[in-house]
């Protein structure tokens, strides 16, 4: 897949959106997996926020997705976002294990599964409001997550990435995952409706799979989005009706668009806004939390929590401990010894995070 990132030119992201971005990692199936985290400011202990997974394309990086607009959404709508990094395939390209010929052999489904656990356990994210989106190969992987993590993900929003051929042959998922798919008709990288790539379906086949999974009618109502930008692109929104009670399938067709990400004011819409407005309507009715029991043993425990600033930390490993505020800034550094540690947090009341190499824990200071 060629270089698709007109998004790099999307420089209207404001400085505040980067203030809460933190590079992090987690061990999954014996591999160190990197990701970038965005936390909204002034995160409160009483909040149970939505979680959005945003996936990059082939040969890309997690950092390339951070200007796509989801940070601004997280800032205003109160969400947590994480941007995972893929491992390399056999051609030396960062690639997701999504069933395509260029996919990697990494255990990416478990990578996402464990990160969902992290954010539910350590940041109190709402297990009913976990969403996934991605561009290009990230979009293809988004479709896979909608199937493989169907018991956890409430809705998906693939951009310019269709179902892989292996995934299109799978049975319909148990939970009818709401789907919004966005794609350009002149896409020369992931074709829209002719000349399919090996191991990839075309958009009509992708929509047919999800339409059948939701038992929707074959035809859809179409709406032309107001054409206000001078970009030679028009947009049609297709909504499939008469689906099962909880089913929802939409296609946003970008007429005349290549393999690009649309954003205002250069285009008529900003894709991240369209996707979030779709996501926000849906909750998973019965999200699985079974894998939460598989979490690793905590490297430290804290009491009391909430605290007036003085805490007792019981550690099973020695090492550095950082106190981080809700904007991701390190406020204090400590060194834990094995056993009991009495620490004083010289901070104002609020929500903070204690972070070691193995663990992150929310701490409320009154």
User: What name is given to the CATH topology of the largest domain?
Assistant: Rossmann fold
Q: What is the C-level CATH assignment of the largest domain? A: Alpha Beta
Q: How are helices and strands ordered from N to C?
A: EEEHEEEHEHEHEHEEEHEEEEEEE
- Give the strand order of the largest sheet, numbering strands 1, 2, ... along the chain: 1-2-4-3-7-8-9-12-11-10
Count of helical segments?
6
The shape is: elongated
Helical proportion, percent range: 10-25%
Radius of gyration: 21 Å
Largest sheet: 10 strands, mixed
- The tally of strands reads 19
- When the domains are counted, the total is 2
Given as residue ranges, the uncertain stretches (5+ residues, pLDDT < 50) are 1-19
CATH architecture descriptor name of the largest domain: 3-Layer(aba) Sandwich
The oligomeric status of these chains comes to: single chain
Average pLDDT for all residues: 90
> What structural category arises from helix and sheet content?
alpha/beta
Strand content: 25-35%
How widely separated are the two ends? 52 Å
CATH H-level superfamily title of the largest domain: Alpha/Beta hydrolase fold, catalytic domain
Summarize the structure.
This protein has 366 residues and is an alpha/beta fold. 16% of the residues lie in helices and 30% in strands. It contains six helices and 19 strands.
